[in-house]
Specification:
Elements (H helix, E strand, L loop, with lengths): L5 E4 L6 E2 L1 H14 L7 H4 L7 H6 L12 H15 L6 E2 L3 H10 L3 E5 L4 H8 L10 E3 L12 H10 L6 E5 L2 H10 L2 E5 L18 E3 L2 H9 L1
Parallel strand pairs: 1-4, 1-6, 4-5, 6-7, 7-8
Antiparallel strand pairs: 2-3
Helix pairs in contact: 1-4
Length: 222
């Protein structure tokens, strides 16, 4: 008997390593506004925080009011990212095998992300294992985004599973908060980006944590 009836996943930093395309899009935008690029290591500290926070790293604080960060700059970023969303993005090691194993063991899987749904669908279209997901739910599919529980509750209702038999895997504190509020089990994806932005994952009060995808697979199936 399976421990879980369903495993739900965050997208960026959990299923897919999307940081390279986000970083390239940010630095392209800065270049378009005659600003110098930002080093990858610094941008990685804000890659989960959104376009605005990434762009601010490239502008001196006292000069940020001079730039239309929430308007023209954000639009430039979004347009470039949409066109180049899959240039360098890859699945984390072991993900394809894990999703296949869930399918083969009749464990449902789905994606619940704070990314816009059309972007999530475009991202996932590159990967054959995307067809194994019951659902890909974006932030514009519900009234609230994570850490609110609504996206997880909607996903579980849509695929017909109960919270007590569902595991949600994510790399950010907001993922764990959402899972806890929705009543399902949570697992921190320690291979992701969230640890660059949030406090020590040991303080997040998750049910589980996994150092890599292979450890997650062992957790699910043992």
């Amino acid at each position: 008997m399976n421990r879980f009836d369903a495993v739900l996943f965050d997208l960026d930093g959990t299923l897919l390593d999307t940081a390279p395309d986000l970083i390239a899009s940010c630095n392209h935008t800065l270049e378009m506004f005659n600003l110098p690029p930002v080093e990858k290591e610094l941008l990685m500290t804000k890659v989960t925080a959104g376009m605005r926070e990434m762009l601010k790293l490239g502008i001196e604080p006292q000069k940020q009011a001079l730039y239309d960060i929430d308007g023209k700059m954000r639009t430039t970023f979004a347009n470039y990212y949409t066109e180049h969303i899959n240039d360098y993005t890859r699945a984390f090691d072991g993900i394809e095998d894990l999703i296949g194993s869930l399918r083969d063991n009749s464990i449902k899987s789905a994606v619940v992300t704070n990314k816009y749904e059309h972007m999530a669908l475009r991202l996932m279209s590159k990967f054959d294992f995307a067809t194994d997901f019951e659902l890909i739910l974006g932030c514009d599919s519900t009234s609230h985004s994570k850490p609110h529980p609504e996206p997880l509750l909607k996903a579980m209702e849509s695929i017909g599973v109960s919270p007590d038999k569902t595991l949600y895997v994510g790399d950010h504190l907001n993922d764990i908060k959402a899972a806890r509020a929705a009543g399902c089990k949570s697992c921190v994806a320690l291979w992701g980006y969230g640890i660059n932005e949030c406090a020590d994952p040991a303080t997040w009060n998750s049910d589980y944590s996994a150092c890599d995808v292979y450890a997650l697979k062992e957790l699910i199936f043992t």
